[in-house]
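Lab notebook, bench 4. Still working through the backlog of constructs that have no structural model yet. Next entry is a single chain of 113 residues. Request: give me the structure tokens for it.
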Amino acid sequence: MPDTQLTVTLSGGDVDDARAVVRALEGTFGAAEQRPSEKRATVRVATFTGEGQGPAAGHGDTESLSAPVEVTVQGTPEAVRRAGDTLMRSFTTHDVGIASGDQEQERQLLLEP
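Model written out:
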């Protein structure tokens, strides 16, 4: 699926926590086109438009979070499912909710340290 597009919105934690979440997704979706960078931001955004080259990160492969991070992933149902699966393997994750539209889906997750 080379046309995969996924938008990830992160709140809570700090910029290093947001970057850890993005790194966890890069194995599945490739390098993010937009990465979290602002240290003072309360909401951070990352976008992915491609496919990763390797297997998705596992729980032991990612960094620890310093605080809970609320993550919203938005994209095609397949991309949202794959993002959720990757985050569940990488972090302690609670499913908060999901909303579906005609061609896109949005899923909210809470990642805990």
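Notes after review: Helices lie at 15-29, 77-90. The longest strand covers residues 92-100. Flag for follow-up if needed.
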